Amino acid sequence: MTRPPSFLSFQPGTRTTRGSAKRTAQGVTDYLRADDKMAALLPAVKRMAALQQDCRAVLPAVFDVCSVVQFDAGQLVFSIPNAALAARLKQQLPKLQEALLQRGWQVSAIRLKVQLRKLVERPRPVKQLKLPSQALSALASLRESLEDSPQNEALKAALEAMVKRHRGER
Asked: Residue spans with biased composition (Polar residues) (predicted)?
C-alpha cells in the first residue's frame, strides 16, 4: 500500500503570509484518492454532500444547523441540534420527502436525531474606557480636595486606584 501524500502538501499559489500551506478542497480530494480505503469513501461523501445541498435548497431556513447523518436503503437520518427545531422540521418532512423524490432521491422514510452540540463561547473583549487627561486631573483634584476622614478613606482609595489605572501606573 502506498502512503498518501500529505494533506497539507505545498501547492503553488496556496502559500499564506506566514509561509505555511493552506488546506484546499483539491488537496483533500487528492488525499482521499491516494489511498484505496479512503478512495472508497469519496463517492459516499459526494453523495451525502449532494443530498445535504438538495435538502438545504428545499428548506433553507431550517437546514442551516441540520445535517445529513445517514442515507441507507431509502432511510434518511438527520442530525438536529435541539428538540424545538426537530418539531418544526417534523411538520415539513412530507414537503421535503416529496421534493427529494422529485430530485431523484429514493427516500422512503426520514428520521430525526436530536444531537446536542457543545457550543463554544467566544470570550467577549473587555471594554476599556479611555478617560481624557482632563477627566483624570479632575478626579485627582477631587481626591485631594476630600478631607481625611474615615468616611472618605474608601472613596479616596478608589479614586487614587482609578487615576493610576488610567494613567498606566501600577
From this structure: 8-19
